[in-house]
Specification:
By secondary structure, the protein is of the alpha+beta class. Among the domains are: 36 residues; 156 residues, Sandwich (Jelly Rolls). It is 20% helix and 32% strand. It has 13 helices and 41 strands. Helix 8 packs across helix 9, helix 9 packs across helix 10 and helix 11 packs parallel to helix 12. The protein is globular and about 90 Å long. The chain starts with a helix and ends with a strand.
């Protein structure tokens, strides 16, 4: 309006003045009364993002990794094709963790098929792989240990203990690197031991030994006072037999351990002093270190003679034996081609590492320090980026004593530090055990595996060798149960576990790494369904919200659906995988693949810039008070807000509104929101009735995309059992 127009129409000026006066009067009249905001759409729940809190900061997908593992014989070539590698990369993961299946299977690992034996003429002894890079050997194998002590292992479980194999020409021998010669500490400080597990209690009063060389010159015999001495270890303790302490003689020896038979299910022999003798003709000091037993018999003296309750057989049908350690001695003939690991060249050259440093393993229980040092030299000569080394894998699952693992850990770290002082080391690489990682109580009554491992390092002023704490996360053993309750309790399980580790002695500032994660360590259909994918996605986000550093998804490589045979009665077929093999090695994506993309490609910004994790909470709970909607919020490098949401109700949709809190003020998240959602409309697993492929997904679509307009007040609906990612404008 021009000045002339305003002059010609004075009534317009009068009207404007009237409006201003009216507004001022309205403000004055309303002073002291609450002003009602515009009506917002009704919702079932509000998700509030507290931008005043910072839970964690991380550099994009460099903390969202995946693991690669050993495979069956001949599978490496079929799995690691260029097309399959490209499919794996499409999931958007960052770094790679190299898992070590040989360590689980009580096997030595020849990461390079070229190398040297300590007894080269006989091609046997202690192996050190060559650190000189030559050709790409494509795959590496494991080697069975002929001096094995454990009946059970965590791999294929197709071996057996030499303590109860019925063959006097074989023997178990403890790891020589746990002898005082290498540890520099008295052997009776953390003695070696043998445990026999009977199917039920037997009347026992006598133990018979056929000793090997070296033998124990001092030992004692104990029984377990609780219900279970192995998995899970309960609150019992080891108690000395009435006639407990004995002097070893070598050869064949019989000792009476009780005046009258005692009903015992778990029996332990603690070996405190060794003979320090070697077999005739030995030239290797390791031959005389530790303890060796050819055969062990446990039973009862009767009027008719000795009754042996040990089942002696070279198979899994033998009486179950566990030992503190096993000698990694083996021979060329012990190769086990059923285990294959992809070569380092194959992994790095494939591009699967995305140009980032790989977390490299070295064996702790079944390796030698010289070989660990050679591995690091080899990788450096190849020019492969390595910043971290995980020492061992799942020692707790093999009943290894924390102090024994710690002694081996330090020897491995020391050998590798001499090659590269900048490399970081960590472990123990626990298998998931809830509610706690524990061992038999020590002299002070401490049962925490973490607490005792940390104490061992701290008492020796070696905490500088402990650069990160690693564990695996498979929180649910029962794959047959309804997943509704596990989904709801999942966040609290992980949070409480980390709190307990710090209470046990884990320093709060030690970086924490999940080196494998999935729904369960057992195979089940739930892993192929939406709940399994939800646990995967939530683990990655939850761990960051709890201050964790890096997590590695397990199931990157294409795989087959299979049926779990042990201890399951639901005939459930499943597997931890995101790409399913079917019809002669073709592949198709599963729910875990789409869940990974939602986290890696949509929730996290595409750049490596700084991401800030903020507290995000919902106000809708189930009857137990557990959140039905969980949310994880990021301020992304471009200034946008990414929110990952899970609806854990299997039946009901939940309408939510996003709010943010800044400076104590609560406001609706403003602007348009890009929404990605994945639920039953996109995916359903259909199990097959026969063996076949185990089933197939149908429908099998990517997440659905939509836009929430600015005038919709950040309100949208979460489908039942679904994953959603909401991203605001920058």
């Amino acid at each position: 309006m021009t000045f002339k127009q305003r002059h010609r129409e004075p009534w317009r000026v009068e009207k404007m003045v009237l409006l201003v006066v009216t507004a001022l009067l309205t403000v004055e009249l309303l002073d002291g009364f609450a002003v009602v905001p515009p009506t917002l759409p009704a919702v079932d729940a509000t998700v509030t993002i507290d931008l005043d809190t910072t839970l964690n900061e991380f550099p994009g997908t460099r903390v969202l990794g995946a693991g690669v593992d050993g495979l069956e014989e001949g599978e490496i070539d079929k799995v690691w094709t260029p097309a399959n590698v490209q499919a794996m990369k499409t999931a958007g993961f960052g770094p790679i963790s190299y898992r070590l299946r040989t360590e689980l299977g009580v096997k030595a690992w020849h990461w390079n098929p070229r190398g040297t034996w300590s007894d080269p003429a006989a091609e046997q002894g202690y192996w050190v792989s060559s650190d000189e890079p030559k050709e790409d050997y494509r795959a590496s194998q494991g080697y069975r240990l002929p001096r094995r002590g454990n009946t059970i292992d965590q791999g294929k479980n197709d071996g057996y203990s030499r303590l109860s194999d019925g063959d006097l020409s074989t023997f178990w021998k403890s790891n020589p690197y746990l002898d005082s010669h290498f540890t520099g500490e008295p052997d009776d400080l953390n003695p070696q031991w043998i445990m026999a597990v009977f199917p039920h209690a037997f009347p026992i009063d006598t133990v018979m030994f056929d000793w090997g060389t070296p033998f124990a010159t001092g030992f004692k015999v104990q029984y377990w006072s609780g219900k279970d001495a192995h998995f899970p270890v309960d609150d019992g303790k080891w108690v000395d037999f009435p006639l407990s302490t004995h002097t070893g003689t070598g050869g064949s020896q019989t000792v009476r351990i009780a005046p009258q038979p005692m009903d015992v299910q778990y029996l332990r022999i603690v070996l405190t002093q060794d003979s320090d003798t070697a077999p005739a003709g030995s030239t290797d000091v390791r031959d005389k270190l530790g303890f060796a037993v050819r055969e062990l018999s446990i039973g009862q003296e009767t009027a008719d003679g000795f009754v042996d309750y040990i089942a002696h057989t070279p198979s899994q049908e033998q009486t179950e034996m566990w030992t503190s350690s096993t000698d990694p001695w083996h021979s060329a003939g012990d190769i086990d081609k059923h285990y294959e690991h992809a070569s380092f060249e194959r992994l790095f050259d494939s591009g699967i590492t995305n140009g980032q440093p790989m977390m490299v393993p070295v064996p702790a229980l079944y390796g030698v320090p010289e070989d660990a040092a050679a591995l690091l030299r080899y990788l450096k000569k190849r020019g492969y980026p390595v910043e971290r080394v995980e020492i061992g894998e799942e020692p707790d699952g093999q009943l290894a004593q924390p102090e024994h693992y710690a002694a081996l850990y330090l020897q491995m770290a020391r050998a590798m530090k001499e090659v590269d002082p900048a490399v970081e080391f960590g472990g123990p690489g626990y298998q998931t055990t809830l509610p706690e990682w524990v061992h038999w109580p020590d002299a002070k009554g401490v049962r925490s595996w973490t607490g005792r491992f940390v104490s061992y390092l701290r008492e020796r002023n070696k905490m500088e060798d402990f650069d990160f704490f690693s564990f695996e996360w498979y929180p649910f053993d029962d794959v047959c149960a309804d997943p509704t309750a596990p989904l709801a309790e999942h966040p609290k399980l992980l949070k409480d576990l980390l709190v307990r580790q710090e209470q046990a002695g884990l320093p709060a500032d030690i970086p924490k790494v999940i080196t494998e994660y999935g729904y369960s360590s057992f195979a089940g259909q739930v892993e192929l369904e939406l709940p399994g994918a939800m646990i995967n996605a939530e683990t990655a986000a939850l761990f960051l919200a709890l201050g964790g550093e890096t997590s590695y998804y397990y199931g990157l490589e294409p795989n087959w659906v299979f049926q779990e045979k042990e201890g399951k009665n639901c005939n459930s077929w499943g597997n931890l995988m995101m790409l399913q093999f079917y019809d002669e090695w073709k592949i198709r994506p599963l729910a875990a693949f789409q869940a990974a993309r939602l986290v890696n490609e949509h929730w996290v910004h595409g750049s490596d810039g700084n991401h800030t994790v903020h507290t995000a909470t919902s106000d809708i709970n189930n009857q137990k008070g557990e959140p039905l909607v969980t949310a994880y919020a990021l301020r992304r490098p471009d200034g946008s807000l990414g929110v990952l949401l899970f609806n854990k109700d299997p039946q009901k949709s939940i309408k939510v509104r996003l709010m943010h809190k800044t400076g104590g003020e609560h406001d609706v998240v403003e602007g348009e929101i890009a929404l990605e959602q994945y639920g039953a409309a996109q995916y359903k697993w259909n199990p097959s009735q026969g063996e076949g492929n185990g089933g197939q997904p149908k429908p099998n679509q990517p997440p659905g995309s939509s836009v929430i307009k600015a005038d919709e007040a950040a309100t949208f609906t979460l489908p039942p059992h679904s994953i959603s990612v909401a991203v605001t404008e920058p």
